[in-house]
# Entry
Amino acid sequence: MPDTATSADFAPAGFAPDLLAWYDRHRRVLPWRAPPGQKVDPYRVWLSEIMLQQTTVAAVKDYFLDFTGRWPTVADLAAAPVEEVLRAWAGLGYYARARNMHRCAVLVVERHGGVFPSTEAELRQLPGIGDYTAAAIAAIAFDRPAAVTDGNVERVMARIFAVETPLPPAKPILKTHAAALTPRRRPGDYAQAVMDLGATICTPRSPKCILCPWSTPCLARKRGIAEDLPAKLAKAPKPTRRAVAFWLTDAQGNVLLRRRPPKGMLGGMMEVPSSAWVEQPMPDLAAVLAEAPGGSGWRLLPGLVRHGFTHFDFELTVAAGRIAGPVDGAVLVPPDRLGEAGLPTAMWKIARHALRHLE
# Structure
């Protein structure tokens, strides 16, 4: 094959069988996949794809098993209180996914009789389902020839075709290649095969080219640039936001928590109350503490709590005080039951910091 290969040179009839044969021997065993020869449950495909957005397979496995144990069907999930779903999601991150997931389950039950639609167009009408997720569900759950392009697929396409245009501008090019290679026979298995290839063989570092079923036509391997692709634009530095967290306890040592507003960062999750999250240096601490919710006897704890969100870094000073009055929407939780409160990771860091310094 010449080094000017295009998608046409990789016709599905010629190359998909090699990949599918490799997949039949080496497919990953994952809790959301049906065993070979068995029909996959669209609910499990959808749930796994939502959980896997910007999250690793290793991090998702236990959450997936917990969710399917609690809510075996989409109707069960739709009937659950959203607060319970958020508690079960705590620690997985990107909490808007959990809220959209619950809304999606409700709409599947109300509008589709508890049966997921099978086309990409219909799936995209549901909350939390974008182009990639719609294609993945259509292909894997309904065996439709949809072009599934997650990060693993993009990496494989960039290397096979030696696409040196950096990401994210290269995304449309890579999706075009992925669509051209998608076969009409076993498209669901093919989609998972490309993802498995990227996850286990065509890895970001030290790709195992000698084991790859597509090593012969791969242009990046021929040119010795496989590990350099896909190229990426330099990321802009992330800003840092700062706040003061208010660790409030009553005479029995119970900790005051409250629920965040349903929209925005960590929407609907339980939190340790804090001041506004600002990018400028923190204002005078005395002024911040004067506006703190229902507390007195404040003392600052040593050190900072740091947490990284997708678009900014977060630094918190923790102030400990006693509850001096009512706080709207607050609940009191014994320290040994904080694990049941469904705290997101950033809030758990505050709790561990406070408990460590107050012991």
Summary: The two ends are 68 Å apart (CA to CA). The chain has a mean pLDDT of 90. Residues 162 and 225 are 8 Å apart (CA to CA).
